[in-house]
Specification:
Blueprint (H helix, E strand, L loop, with lengths): L2 E5 L2 H6 L2 E4 L3 E10 L2 E3 L2 E5 L5 E11 L2 E10 L6 E11 L5 E10 L4 E12 L2 H8 L5 H9 L2
Parallel strand pairs: 1-3, 2-5, 3-6, 4-7, 5-7, 6-8, 7-9, 8-10
Length: 148
């Protein structure tokens, strides 16, 4: 079983602007931004051969803006790496904006697996209606809908 590293506040996200991946681990970033504007960059550099890592980033925006390139780098000579980058952004209102750019920079041909994905979901009040109609308040409904 791989280690699991969970980061869930903006200060820690900014501390991970450049992270050397030296062991197999699942990285989970969970971020709720309220009335904020952030510009930051996240860079994951694989520096050890045969490492397997999933990088899972989920961001919920409430009257916020987020600009963040997220890069995975596999340098030449780092063989047998398996790297997955998955990003989901929940835009919770019309005032929020997201500019998220996933990128994979692979410089070695001997990679087990490498992939990335990005989904931006616009959440509307009608999406929460199901929960309201069953007596579930907005806060819990959002948590059930976005998962954190």
């Amino acid at each position: 079983m791989r280690d699991e590293i969970i980061i869930n506040d903006i200060q820690n996200i900014q501390n991970y602007s450049e992270l050397k991946v030296t062991k197999s681990a699942d990285y989970k970033f969970r971020l709720k931004l309220r009335n904020q504007k952030i510009q930051t960059k996240m860079k994951f550099i694989f520096s050890t051969p045969s490492v397997e890592s999933n990088i899972d980033i989920k961001i919920a925006l409430y009257k916020s803006e987020c600009e963040m390139p997220v890069e995975v780098h596999i340098p030449n000579g780092v063989k047998g790496v398996s790297a997955e980058l998955n990003i989901v952004v929940y835009v919770m209102d019309e005032k929020s904006r997201a500019n998220i750019t996933p990128g994979m920079f692979i410089h070695d041909r001997d990679v087990q697996k490498a992939g990335h994905g990005l989904v931006i979901k616009n959440i509307k009040n009608k999406d929460l209606y199901y929960f309201y109609s069953r007596g579930i308040d907005r806060k819990l409904g959002e948590k059930l809908l976005i998962g954190f």
